[in-house]
Design brief:
The complex is a heterodimer of chains A (307) and B (452).
Chain A: E1 2-13, E2 16-27, E3 31-35, H1 42-49, E4 57-62, E5 65-66, E6 75-78, H2 90-100, H3 105-118, H4 134-146, E7 152-156, H5 164-179, E8 183-187, H6 191-197, E9 200-205, E10 208-214, H7 215-221, E11 226-232, H8 235-241, E12 246-254, E13 257-264, H9 270-277, E14 282-289, H10 293-306
Parallel strand pairs in A: 3-8, 3-9, 6-7, 7-8
Antiparallel strand pairs in A: 1-2, 1-4, 4-5, 9-10, 11-13, 11-14, 12-13
Helix pairs in contact in A: 2-3, 2-4
Chain B: H1 2-16, H2 19-48, E1 51-57, E2 74-78, H3 84-92, E3 99-103, E4 115-118, H4 124-145, H5 151-158, E5 166-170, E6 173-177, H6 179-213, H7 217-221, H8 226-263, H9 287-292, H10 301-309, H11 314-342, H12 350-372, H13 377-384, H14 389-396, H15 403-431, H16 441-448
Parallel strand pairs in B: 1-2, 1-3
Antiparallel strand pairs in B: 3-4, 5-6
Helix pairs in contact in B: 1-8, 2-8, 6-8, 6-11, 6-12, 6-14, 8-11, 8-15, 11-14, 11-15, 12-14, 13-14, 15-16
Classes of the chains: A alpha/beta (307), B alpha/beta (452).
Chain lengths: 307, 452
C-alpha cells in the first residue's frame, strides 16, 4: 500500500518549470530517498507534499484518498532551511511548535519530557536557543519534528550540520521510527546514507523524475558486471583461463596473492566464471561489484542531461 | 482558527515580556502626565520660592516702591549707600542676596542703563516683573510731572482685558469650542498615529525578517497557513499596542487626577467651564500672569488649564483614535509584512520602504496644515484617502468633523486594508520561501498572479 502518491504534478513559477509531470508513489513503512542535483525541484515537491505550495496540475493522495488540509498534522517536516526563534527559551519553543502541530499542552509536555530525557538534554529547557550550538539546535529541531508521532515524515538534508556522533544518533532514530511503522522521505545529497537507509528512491533532474525504484533493483540495473576475485596462484594462468566472454580489467598483488577485476561482457552467469578459474587458482573471495549510489546518481543525471 | 490564537499569543507574550515594553509602559504616561502637569506645577512652584534682591537705587525714587501684592515671593532690600562695585565684590563670597538691582541716576533719561547682577541665571519671570514694575513707576512719575495725578487709578479703570470665546454652530446647536486645545489635541493624536504606524509597522517587518533569517518560517508554515502566520503576527503586535495605549490612558488619567488633587484642592471643576476658551499656553509660563498682573483673576491659570480638558469629548476621540490606529496599522502593517517577506535582511528594505514612507509623511504634513484649515478641501480629501486618512482625520475629529465624513473615511479605510491584507498575503507566502535572491518590483507583481 502506498501511503502517499503524487500523480502527474506540474508546478511552474512564472516561466520557470519546477516540476514537469512528476509522479511518485511512496510505499507505507519505508524510507524513500528523494535525490537530485541542486535546483532539480526536490524542495518544490516536498513543499507540495506539505501543502505549503499547491501544484498547478496533478493529484495528491494520502492513505489512498485525496490529500486534505488537516493531513499536515499527520506529517512531520524538517526543512533544509531550518531554524528556531533565537530569543525564545528551548522548552517554551518546543511546546509552541508542538501545539502548532495540533498537540494538547499536556500531551506535548509529556512527550517532550520523554525525548529530552532520551537525548539527555533536560538541562536545556530554560536556556535560550541562541545559547545552543548548531548541533544542539538540530537535535531540538529533530525532536520537534517527530514529537507528534507523525505517520509520514519528511527530512530535507537532515544530516547537514551534524557531527558524526549526532548524525549516527539521527540515523538510528530514523530506523527506529521506521520500525515503529512510520514512513520517511529522505531528501539528501549524502549517497552513503541513501544506500544505508533507503528502500526506494526517485531521482529528479531538471524538473523530471529520471530514475525511480527500489535501491537494490536500481543498483542491479546499473551494475557494471564486474567481479572482484581474490585468489592464490599464478596471474598468468589466471588470465589464460578466461574465455572471450570475460575481460580482465586489472590485476594487482604479489607473492601469489592476487586480486583481479573481471568484466562479464555478455552478462552470462557468474558461475561460468567460477567454473573457468576454479581448476587453475585457489579462490579466496568472489564478489560482484555493485555500483555506489554516487555513481548511479552521476550516471543518471548525465544521461538525462544529454537527452 | 485555534492555530492563529497560538501565534497571536506567542507574538503578544514575547513582546509584552520584553524590558523595552515595560519601560515604555511606565515612561509613556509619565511623559504624558509631565506634559500636562509640569507647566501647571511650575506656575504654582515659582510663587513659593522666595528671592532676595538687593536694590541700589541711586535715584532714591524707587525705595519701597518695587513690591506688589501679586509678587510676594520677591523681597527687595534697599541699600542706597553702597556702590555696585562694592556689592559685586561682596556677592562673590556671599549668597545672602540672589541678585542686585542697580538703578543709576540717569535711568529716567536712559532706559537701558538699569542692571541686574546675579549669581546664576535669573528667572525670566523676575526680570520681566522688575522691568514692567520700573516701567510703570517711571511712567507714573512722568505722568505726574505732566500734571496727571492718580495715574494708577485712571489706568486701572481704562485698562481692558479681552478673552475671546469661540462657539461653533452646527445643526445640533451651538457649542463652546477650544481652538487651541483642539489644535494641540489634533496634533498629538495625528502625531501618535503616525508614530505608532511607523514604530509598530516596523516591528511587524522586523518580526517577519527575523522568522525568515532564523529559517523557522518553513517549519511553521508546514503546520499553519502562511496567511495565518502573517495575520497572527500583525494582530499580536496590534494587541501589544492596544495594551500599551490602554495602560497609558489609565496611568495618565490616574496621574492627572492625582496631580489635580494635589495641586488644586477644593476646586469645583464645573465652575471652571467658563474659563475654558483661554489659551492653554498661558499656563505654561507664569510670565503672562505677571505682566498683566490681573487682579481680576478669580482662579489660577492652573485651574483654567484643567478646566479646558473637561470640555473635550474624550470617549468619542479615544474611540475613533483606536479605530483609526487599528485601520491605519492593519493597512500599513500588511505592507510592512510584505516587505519583510521579500528581503533577506533589514538593510535590503530601503528600496521598498519609499512607497510606504511617502504617503505617511505626506499625511503628517497635511495633518499640520489641517490643524489650521480643518474645513479646507485638502483636509477633506486627505482625510478620506485611506493612505493618509488615519493621520489627517484624527486632526479633524477634535474640531467636530461631521460624523458622515468620519464614517465614509472609516468605511474606505476598512475596504482598503482588506485589499491590502489580501495583496500582502500573496506577496508574503511567496516571499518567505525565497532566500538569497534580490527581488524587484517586477517580480513581486508576478507573484500577485500566482495560484497557490
Amino acid at each position: 500500500m502506498n501511503i502517499f502518491e503524487a500523480r502527474n504534478i506540474v508546478k511552474a513559477y512564472g516561466d520557470f518549470t519546477a516540476l514537469d509531470n512528476v509522479t511518485v508513489s511512496i510505499p507505507e513503512n519505508s524510507i524513500y530517498g528523494l535525490l537530485g542535483p541542486n535546483g532539480a525541484g526536490k524542495t518544490t515537491l516536498i513543499r507540495i507534499m506539505n501543502q505549503i505550495l499547491m501544484p498547478d496540475q496533478g493529484q495528491l493522495f494520502f492513505q489512498n484518498r485525496p490529500l486534505k488540509p488537516n493531513d499536515v498534522f499527520a506529517m512531520g517536516y524538517l526543512p533544509e532551511e531550518r531554524g528556531l526563534y533565537k530569543k525564545m527559551k528551548v522548552g517554551e519553543q518546543a511546546l509552541y511548535l508542538a501545539r502548532l502541530k495540533g498537540m494538547s499542552k499536556n500531551d506535548a509536555l509529556k512527550k517532550l519530557k520523554y525525548w529530552f530525557e532520551k537525548f539527555e538534554i533536560q538541562s536545556w529547557w530554560d536556556k535560550k536557543v541562541e545559547e545552543l550550538s548548531k548541533g544542539m539546535a538540530q537535535k531540538l529541531q529533530f525532536i520537534v519534528t517527530i514529537l507528534h508521532e507523525p505517520k509520514f515524515l519528511i527530512f530535507d538534508e537532515p544530516f547537514s550540520g551534524f557531527d558524526p556522533i549526532n548524525a549516527t544518533l539521527m540515523r538510528d532514530e530514523m530506523l527506529n521510527l521506521k520500525a515503529q511503522g512510520a514512513t520517511i522521505i529522505l531528501s539528501t545529497h549524502n549517497m552513503n546514507s541513501v544506500e544505508e537507509l533507503c528502500d526506494n528512491i526517485t531521482l529528479i533532474n531538471k524538473a523530471q523524475a529520471v530514475l525511480e525504484g527500489e535501491v537494490i533493483e536500481i543498483q542491479n540495473r546499473y551494475k557494471p558486471d564486474i567481479f572482484e576475485i581474490s585468489y592464490k596462484g599464478d596471474p598468468q594462468i589466471f588470465q589464460r583461463s578466461l574465455n572471450s566472454k570475460f575481460e580482465l580489467l586489472e590485476q594487482t598483488g604479489r607473492k601469489e596473492i592476487y586480486s583481479a577485476k573481471v568484466k562479464n561482457i555478455h552478462a552470462s552467469g557468474d558461475n561460468e566464471l567460477l567454473n573457468l578459474i576454479l581448476p587453475h587458482v585457489h579462490v579466496t573471495s568472489f564478489t560482484e561489484i555493485l555500483p555506489s549510489m554516487n555513481d548511479i546518481f552521476i550516471k543518471a543525471v548525465e544521461s538525462s542531461n544529454k537527452n | 482558527m485555534n492555530k492563529i490564537f497560538l501565534i497571536i499569543s506567542r507574538e503578544y507574550l514575547t513582546r509584552i515580556r520584553k524590558k523595552s515594553f515595560i519601560v515604555m509602559s511606565i515612561l509613556g504616561p509619565l511623559l504624558f502626565a509631565a506634559m500636562f502637569v509640569i507647566p501647571i506645577w511650575m506656575t504654582t512652584r515659582e510663587s513659593d520660592e522666595v528671592k532676595k534682591i538687593a536694590v541700589i537705587d541711586s535715584t532714591m525714587e524707587f525705595i519701597n516702591q518695587l513690591e506688589s501684592e501679586h509678587q510676594k515671593n520677591l523681597i527687595f532690600v534697599y541699600q542706597p549707600h553702597f556702590t555696585l562695585d562694592q556689592y559685586k565684590k561682596y556677592m562673590k563670597n556671599n549668597k545672602e542676596y540672589d541678585a542686585v538691582l542697580y538703578i543709576p541716576r540717569i535711568l529716567p533719561y536712559s532706559p537701558n542703563s538699569a542692571q541686574l547682577v546675579s549669581h546664576g541665571q535669573i528667572n525670566f519671570s523676575i526680570t520681566s516683573y522688575i522691568t514692567s514694575k520700573l516701567e510703570t513707576l517711571l511712567t507714573e512719575k512722568k505722568m505726574r510731572a505732566l500734571g496727571i495725578d492718580n495715574f494708577e487709578k485712571i489706568m486701572e479703570s481704562a485698562k481692558t482685558k479681552i478673552s475671546l470665546q469661540t462657539i461653533t454652530v452646527s445643526a445640533r446647536g451651538e457649542k463652546k469650542s477650544n481652538v487651541e486645545v483642539n489644535m494641540i489635541l489634533g496634533y498629538l493624536l495625528g502625531l501618535l498615529i503616525y508614530m505608532f504606524i511607523f514604530m509598530f509597522g516596523a516591528q511587524v517587518m522586523r518580526g517577519v525578517i527575523e522568522e525568515k533569517t532564523n529559517r523557522i518560517v518553513e517549519v511553521i508554515i508546514s503546520s499553519v497557513k502562511p496567511f495565518q502566520l502573517m495575520m497572527g503576527k500583525v494582530i499580536g503586535i496590534a494587541l501589544v499596542v492596544l495594551t500599551q495605549i490602554s495602560f497609558w490612558i489609565i496611568m495618565t488619567s490616574t496621574l492627572v487626577i492625582i496631580a489635580k488633587a494635589v495641586l488644586l484642592p477644593d476646586v469645583d471643576m464645573t465652575q471652571l467651564q467658563s474659563a475654558a476658551p483661554q489659551s492653554i499656553m498661558s499656563s505654561s509660563g507664569s510670565m503672562s500672569g505677571m505682566q498683566s498682573a490681573a487682579p481680576a483673576m478669580n482662579m489660577s491659570e492652573a485651574q483654567k488649564a484643567f478646566a479646558k480638558f473637561d470640555t473635550i469629548p474624550f470617549v468619542k476621540i479615544i474611540g475613533w483614535f483606536i479605530f483609526f490606529f487599528i485601520g491605519g496599522y492593519l493597512l500599513y502593517g500588511s505592507f510592512f509584512a510584505a516587505i519583510g517577506s521579500v528581503v533577506d535582511s533589514e538593510t535590503d528594505t530601503q528600496q521598498f520602504m519609499l512607497p510606504i514612507t511617502i504617503p505617511l509623511i505626506m499625511g503628517l504634513f497635511i495633518m499640520f496644515y489641517t490643524l489650521n484649515n480643518h474645513d479646507s478641501s485638502i483636509a477633506y480629501w486627505f482625510s478620506i484617502f485611506p493612505l493618509t486618512s488615519p493621520i489627517v482625520m484624527m486632526a479633524r475629529i477634535p474640531f467636530d468633523a461631521p460624523n458622515s465624513e468620519i464614517i465614509l473615511s472609516a468605511v474606505i479605510l476598512i475596504l482598503t486594508f482588506i485589499g491590502a491584507i489580501w495583496m500582502a498575503g500573496k506577496i508574503y507566502r511567496t516571499g518567505i520561501l525565497i532566500y538569497g535572491k534580490k527581488v524587484g518590483y517586477k517580480e513581486i507583481f508576478k507573484w500577485l498572479k500566482y495560484k497557490h
